[in-house]
Automatic annotation (TrEMBL):
One of its GO terms (molecular function) is DNA binding. One of its GO terms (biological process) is DNA integration. The keyword DNA-binding applies. The keyword Translocase does not apply. Belongs to the 'phage' integrase family. PANTHER family: PROPHAGE INTEGRASE, PROPHAGE INTEGRASE INTS-RELATED. SUPFAM superfamilies: DNA breaking-rejoining enzymes. It comes from Pseudomonas guineae. This is Integrase. Residues 83-161 form the Core-binding (CB) domain. It holds the Pfam family Phage_int_M. Residues 182-373 form the Tyr recombinase domain.
Length: 374
């Protein structure tokens, strides 16, 4: 009687005196010969390897390195392996000349958004469809979160294209979220003067430093991070100007400013008055020092923020950000009819940015003048 042919487990087949497993990975069919004999024990070992491959694929953990570990004698050219998304993203970040805060932000986006979905995939095997699927599955915290994440991803893939690791940028097809601009919400000049007067009237002794701080903020338009880092040596009171060249970021002094270009800010009488008050209270390296003596400079805008909020509450003025002191200075200058190029220089903006941001106030200041030209 003829012997019944042996039934092999799914994906397992004999080849010579060894066993071979079949599976699909990275869009192609693979066959890998294993060093196991055609015995029950060998067959069980082959089944275990194939099941492991299936599980790794399901968890998106079958990377090129893992593949080489499972099949060290594979006929597929290991030398031509390209990096995974995680490997290339790390290389990309390491090669950037960026400040620590930006680096931490990039790492946070990658670790929390993209690496969980793309980490083990080869950089050249990621398609636009893959990215759209991932983007659709993520619960984005906000439109700006989605926009910043996709912009970062597109930058990484642009570099991969330039490095000839992939032939196209799959992130280019992901639609960018439209992020509404935060509305400019300045104080009126009358409100600004009331806030400053309340601070001087109600903050006694060393705390008057914060009254001077906000008078300077309202009448120079400095960004809070720039004002915190202003050194006395960079203020020329006789020439009535201050050199803006550094900022505070995450509590640390950094020798840079947001727009990359240092600038000279001309000082009006109110700004000079604030400098005089601050100097009477503290004549150290930095213009505005913490009143508790915790360091040479104020490390966070949250320190003066408390007193700012007290003033708004006491005066029943609608709550707004400290940053709106900067917007207040810009709109006061525009309403006074100053040259937009001069104002842009004071703020560290381009003229185009100034006109875009403050168009409403620019128009309001000149509407009747323009009409009278008829």
């Amino acid at each position: 009687m003829a012997r019944k042919p042996m039934e092999w487990p799914a994906g397992i087949e004999p080849v010579g005196d060894k066993l071979r497993i079949r599976f699909t990975w990275a869009g192609s069919r693979r066959c890998e010969t294993l060093p196991y004999p055609q015995t029950p024990k060998g067959i069980a070992a082959a089944v275990a390897i194939r099941d492991q491959v299936a599980q790794l694929k399901k968890l998106n953990l079958l990377s090129e390195d893992k593949y080489a570990e499972l099949f060290p004698n594979s006929s597929y050219a290991v030398a031509s392996l390209k990096p995974t998304f995680t490997e290339y993203a790390q290389l990309w970040i390491d090669s950037r000349q960026i400040v620590d805060a930006t680096r931490r932000n990039y790492c946070s986006i990658l670790n929390n958004v993209w690496v969980p979905h793309l980490g083990s995939k080869r950089i050249d095997m990621i398609s636009a469809a893959d990215l759209r699927k991932v983007a659709a599955a993520i619960s984005w915290a906000s439109p700006s979160h989605r926009k910043n994440s996709t912009v970062l991803l597109a930058s990484i893939f642009r570099s991969a294209v330039a490095d000839e690791l992939t032939g196209r940028n799959p992130a280019a097809s992901i639609p960018r979220s439209k992020v509404p601009r935060r509305p400019v919400d300045p104080f009126t000049r009358e409100e600004a003067d009331r806030i400053i007067a309340w601070l001087y009237a109600n903050l006694a002794g060393p705390l008057r430093m914060y009254a001077a701080y906000f008078e300077f903020a309202f009448y120079t338009g400095l960004r809070p991070c720039e004002q915190l880092a202003l050194k006395r040596s960079e203020v020329k009171e006789v020439e009535r100007r201050a050199h803006i060249c550094r900022l505070v970021s995450d509590g640390n002094i950094e020798e840079r400013i947001k727009t990359k270009y240092t600038r000279e800010v001309l000082l009006n009488e109110r700004a000079l008055h604030a400098l005089g008050v601050a100097k009477q209270l503290h004549d150290g390296e930095f213009v505005f020092a913490p009143v508790d003596g915790s360091g040479p400079y104020i490390r966070s805008e949250n320190t003066p923020k408390h007193y700012f909020q007290l003033a708004l509450a006491a005066l029943k003025i609608r709550a707004r950000r400290q940053y709106d002191a900067r917007h207040t200075y810009a709109t006061m200058c525009l309403m006074a009819g100053m040259n937009p190029a001069f104002i842009a220089g004071q703020l560290g903006h381009s003229v185009q940015m100034l006109l875009t941001t403050y168009a409403k106030w620019l128009s309001s200041a000149s509407d009747w003048t323009e009409l009278n030209k008829l």
